Amino acid sequence: MAQVVMAIDQGTTSTRAILFNHQGMIVSSAQKEHHQFYPKPGWVEHDPLEIWRSAQMVMQEALISSGLSINDVAVIGITNQRETTLVWDKSTGKPFYPAVVWQDTRTDQICSQLAEDGGQDRFRRKTGLPIATYFSGPKIKWLLENVPGLRQATNEGQALFGNIDTWILWNLTGGVNGGLHLTDVTNASRTLLMNLETLDWDDEIITSLGIPRQLLPEIKPSSGILGFATGAWESIPVAGILGDQQAALFGQTCFEAGEAKNTYGTGCFMLINTAQKIVQSKSGLLTTVGYKIGESPAVYCLEGSIAITGALVQWLRDNLQMIKSAPEIEELAKTVADSGGIYIVPAFSGLFAPYWRSDARGVIVGLTRYINRGHFARAVLEATAYQTREVLDAMESDSNVKLKALKVDGGMVHNDLLMQFQADITYVPVVRPTVAETTALGAAYAAGLAVGFWHDTEELKANWQQDKVWEPKMESATRSKLYAGWKKAVARTFNWIE
Fold it and tell me: How far apart (Å, rounded) are the C-alpha atoms in residues 247 and 23?
């Protein structure tokens, strides 16, 4: 009898494979970082072939370190960095161009042109999204217009588009030898091309962007048998796909309306379950598909997307070289009592929720001779908490639900200083589960449900366990003063790009 579920978690900076048992606990894992390419200011690219090699490597390493055999793996689930866009030749398996990462802003002019007729919210009623560089649709349009030979290959039926989930699935299920060209509703809902009601590509929108339908993958539920792996993983079903933030929602077992989670990774993403109701945001949030289990109706969410949080720690490490490793930031931040009056607003790719300002760029304000490395470290951590507070305020306004607690996950939740400041600045208890790798766990749950490894969502909820809670301690006046300073700093980022 199969003992574990394999989750492939393909993120912005690394690829992981994690094996989970019936209790939702980690049996083994492996991780490998991949290169980040910045060919021009605002441009961010990945090598799709490197990502696929990394995926194969970590899958094997996780299995070997578990001491189990392939026969012990019941099913494979996939979760992925969303919106990152690639096109490849179905006959050779070679990409036509590097993957254009979700943070990339090269489509700014395309987005401005699209917004000339109907404004930034031209497609929001159908897609739940504003026109922004964040999403895949404008990236596909850019590729078709700028990559030599791609338009012709598309017209001849040779080119395939996918986000990273589709790329991994295609390779895993045979690649050039019949690989499946599929995606799920959560990833499709992040392209700016899918109709939230029909759960299919919207003909009017893809025509507006000049994207041929044959380039796009078929859209499937998040949980359900998609096909079977080939090669080293021969005959193991692949039965779950969820974009990373929806996967974290699923892994946190937020199955009821009003339940919310916040994931701290390269960026920060807060989602609240709105059940089968499509709620159009009036506060700068995104409306997105949360998940779809088999033939059951789709479950929708409101999402607040923040582009730069963990990536700001990497910037402090790699660009400024103030720390040698990401975990060092907490100790450095503890050398000071506060940020010394400085704020760092990391609008490196513009501002995402709730502003959607592609003209914004990052600022550091409040500098004096008093400021040292410790203050920088503290301001970097606090920037994540402030941005989360802005999204939380918008979420409560749109949903008319006052959050009683914030479930958190992702790499930064092991930073106690950040989590305490998060509780303080939001005035909401912050709750960390025992298994903080909820993105991978969500993909495992979706896949496991499809093959009966787990029977229903109640069984998944029974697995969830609380690890730690941070209660708000900050005085109200201090909280208000600090947050007002943050808002002032954010305003300084506007209109930087002409």
Answer: 17
Task: Return the closest-CA partner of residue 493 out of 292, 390, 349.
Answer: 349
- Tokens of residue 128, six digits: 């739940």
**C-alpha–C-alpha distance, residues 214 and 24, integer Å:** 38
pLDDT level of residue 1 (50, 70, 90 thresholds): low
In 301-437, where does DSSP find H-type helix? 310-318, 328-333, 373-399, 416-426
Q: Is the model's pLDDT at 247 over the cut of 80?
A: yes
Element (H, E) at 462: helix 457-463
Quote the tokens at residue 47: 């090598």
Kindly write down the DSSP assignment for every residue of 149-192, as one continuous string.
THHHHHHTT-EEEE-HHHHHHHHHTTTTTT---EEEHHHHTTTT
Whether residue 193 has pLDDT greater than 80 = yes
pLDDT digit string, tens, across residues 18-51: 999 999 999 999 999 999 999 998 899 999 999 9
Residue 401 has pLDDT above 80, yes or no: no
Residue (of 182, 210, 82, 200) closest to 135 by Cα position: 82
Which 3 state secondary structure label does DSSP give 379? helix
Q: How many residues does the chain have?
A: 498
Pairing of strands 406-409, 260-264: parallel
Nearest residue to 194 via CA among 264, 186, 351, 179 = 186
Name the pTM for this structure: 0.86
Instruction: List the one residue out of 82, 75, 80 whose CA is nearest residue 239.
Output: 75
For 219-245, write each residue's pLDDT tens digit: 999 999 999 999 999 999 999 999 999
Cis ω before 297 (30° cut-off from 0): no
Beta strands 182-184; 218-220: pairing state: parallel
| Helices vs strands, H then E, count in the chain | 16, 23
Token pair of 201 as six digits: 């590509």
Q: In whole angstroms, how far apart are CA 263 and each of 100, 247, 401, 464?
A: 22, 10, 20, 16
Distance (Å, whole) CA 36 – CA 46: 6
Give the strand pairing for 268-273 and 260-264. antiparallel
* pLDDT on residue 257: 86
Report pLDDT for 358: 84
CA distances from 369 to 7, 203, 365, 485 (A): 49, 58, 13, 19
Give CA angle at 450 (444, 451), nearest 5°.
Answer: 95
Whether the pLDDT of residue 124 is over 90: the answer is yes
Distance CA 176, CA 182 (A): 14
pLDDT at position 436 over 80: no
Mean pLDDT (whole number) for 3-13: 95
- For 203, residues 6+ apart whose C-beta sits below 8 A from its C-beta are 213
Hey, what are 79's tokens? 């979760």
Gyration radius (Cα) of the chain, Å: 22
